[in-house]
Amino acid sequence: MWSQSIMLLSLASVALATPAPLHKRGSGKAGISWPVQEGSAIPVELFFGSGSSLTWWWDWNMNYGSSMFPDGVPTMSAEFVPMYYDESTISSGATLQAGFSMAMGYNEPDQAVSGVSIAIPATAAAANWPAIRSAVLAANPSAKLISPTPAGDVDWLVEFFNALCPGQQSTQWSNCADAPDIIGMHAYATDFDGLTSKVESFYSTFGRPIIVSEFAMANFAGFEPTQQEVYDFMGQTTLWFDQQDYVINYAWFGAVRDSANLHDVPETNRLMAADGTITPLGQQYINGGHD
After folding, report:
1. Domain ranges, residue 115
2. For this UniProt entry, which residues form the secretion signal (predicted)?
3. How many domains does the chain have?
4. Host H or E run for residue 32
5. CB-based contact 177:130 (threshold 8 Å)
6. Regarding beta strands 56-58 and 79-80, do their DSSP bridges make them parallel or antiparallel, or are they unpaired?
7. Does pLDDT of 12 surpass 50?
8. What is the pLDDT of residue 117?
9. 9 within some domain
10. Secondary structure class of 197 (helix, strand, coil)
């Protein structure tokens, strides 16, 4: 559905849609997500070429084997972070990707959206968590576990922690052996302040390192930022992430070819065009995201 129109632009308008100039590389925290619906993961390699600041990726699954991507898997050396997408993953028989050092819990269990997420009550997720923890540590005893990643605010995850570790909220669940090591979250916003306030609320609530595994300039309510606004938003947010010691990884959402896989995130957030080439925004991200 996505296409790129060719039009004549004045020099003034060209200047208004220019990626942030980049003079240094990023912190090594940046990565991408890549949906299995794309069929092949070979295009992921374009994000990890020589000089790229990106270091990791994920695909909402436990691995990136041929069963996930029958049309091809990438061969670059970037770190892959597996995910237990929903409750069925526990008994699916799927194996964790060899060499993993972190594993994610459920994807957006606080909502049910077709093709995106399956709602899971926080108490049920807590009941299943020890099985996930045991499987992850059996595969890699030094691995870190990332919490289930809600789409919304802290409420679902607070309920999850309270079910997992009753009576410990006042100490941020610091004495619970089963608690996740890292907090996973998604952060979509229409401006810089909206995004940072959400991330700060998660950190102040849980007091653990954070991975923002999806973020972009969006609100899923008709907001359509200009390309320049997205360039600037990326520059501001990636700089801020790199400055926060507690944000250990982040991944911009927009590495897709098929518009359907954007799931209503505005087209101006694309890191890859429909023809499989890297967009100017994608180049900005590869080069560090900010000045």
Report:
1. 84-286
2. 1-17
3. 1
4. strand 30-33
5. no
6. parallel
7. no
8. 87
9. no
10. helix
Q: What is the mean pLDDT of residues 237-246?
A: 98
Token pair for residue 265?
């995130």
Q: Which two tokens stand for residue 42?
A: 């070979």
Residue 45 placed within a domain = no
**Residues found in the chain:** 291
Tell me the pairing of strands 247-252 and 30-33. parallel
pLDDT of residue 19: 62
Q: Give the strand order in the sheet containing 56-58.
A: 79-80, 56-58, 30-33, 247-252, 210-217, 183-189
Q: Has residue 24 got a pLDDT over 80?
A: no
H-run or E-run covering 248: strand 247-252
Backbone angles phi, psi at 189, to 5 degrees: -155, 165
33, containing H or E segment:
strand 30-33
Question: What's the CATH code of the domain at 205?
Answer: 3.20.20.80
Half-sphere exposure for 135 (CA within 13 Å, toward CB): 21
Q: Which residues contact 72 (CB under 8 A, 6 or more apart)?
A: 40, 41, 42
Are 40 and 64 within 8 A, CB to CB? Answer: no
| 236 within domain boundaries | yes
Task: Output the pTM of the full model.
Answer: 0.90
Summarised one tens digit per residue, pLDDT across range 163-218 is 999 999 999 999 999 999 999 999 999 999 999 999 999 999 999 999 999 999 99
Q: How many CB atoms lie under 10 A from the CB of residue 92?
A: 13
54 located within any domain: no
CA atoms of 247 and 245, how far apart (whole Å): 6
